[in-house]
Amino acid sequence: MMSGGIRFALLGPVRAWDGATELPLGSPQQRTVLAALLLREGSMVTVDELVAAVWGDEPPRSAINTVRTYLSRLRTLLRDAATIVSIGGGYALPVDRAATDVTVFHDHVASAREARRLGDVAAAAASLRAAVALHRGRPLAGAAGPYADAQRTRLEQQMLAARIDLLAADVELGHGDEAIPELMTLADEHPLRERVHELLMLALYQAGRQADALAVYQDVRLLLADELGIDPGAGLQAAHRRILAADPDLVLPAVLPPATTGTPRTPAPRTGSQRPGGVAAPLRPRRHRRRTGL
């Protein structure tokens, strides 16, 4: 595979460089074709798939010819730095993994996963920090079409998962006070993600803010009841019990389960659990009512 000095960025605006020279990638549709090739990581993409990537289910009659025009322009633009090859009924763009920020991101996340499996939380945090640092704004910015929209959502979710895993590692390493600002931001942006609130509670407790940590629990408990008709999950409830008991182990590096960042749990019948009185706190994420964002 050839990459030379070529570099591609997809975790933000779609961009490419040949050495120090940034390449003019053309129209949003042409950038979508390039992104589709890069995200396939050297595997073949059919012409029909490229057409669907740009126009969805209603392509114009000239779609196939237009896609081939985009491919021809990209080949000319990339020249010897990288080669779009014809394979059967489609095309591929093989480049080194280090040449594309998305594959580098995935490699860092895989390294973090392996480090955590081996019990090396500090190494996992370092790999996750390198992964998160690749974020340059809205993924696939400048590309257009249904494929770009779907992949943008997927990449945003992967980046969010890496951010939460990194914050979990920081809390586990005893650096909860440093993680509080970002955790508060994430709790406000994703109010139904219980893991974020759990980490925020632990971080606040590590910083000596027990009342604030308990107030976060009360807010998210009421939010889950209002929005989904469910009680907090096991992780949130366990953190709440330990904070109420002033568990001294919570202020030390402790083994936490790997962060999970899936969609909120499916609403289930209420269990009729008791609702302890709320605890006032001067600083905590804003209370969200009738909001269902993830």
From TrEMBL:
Keywords for this protein: DNA-binding, Transcription, Transcription regulation
Xref: Pfam families: BTAD, Trans_reg_C
Limits of the OmpR/PhoB-type domain: 1-95
Family from the record: Belongs to the AfsR/DnrI/RedD regulatory family.
Transcription regulation as UniProt keyword: yes
Low complexity bias locations: 255-272
Protein name in UniProt: DNA-binding SARP family transcriptional activator
GO biological process: phosphorelay signal transduction system; regulation of DNA-templated transcription
GO molecular-function term, one example from the UniProt record: DNA binding
KW Transcription (keyword) present: yes
Renumbered residue ranges of the record's region Disordered: 255-294
UniProt feature coiled coil, ranges: none
InterPro entries: AfsR-DnrI-RedD_regulator, BTAD, OmpR/PhoB-type_DNA-bd, Sig_transdc_resp-reg_C-effctor, TPR-like_helical_dom_sf, WH-like_DNA-bd_sf
Organism in which the protein naturally occurs: Catenuloplanes niger
Start-end of Basic residues biased regions: 284-294
DNA-binding region: 1-95
Classification via SUPFAM superfamilies: C-terminal effector domain of the bipartite response regulators, TPR-like
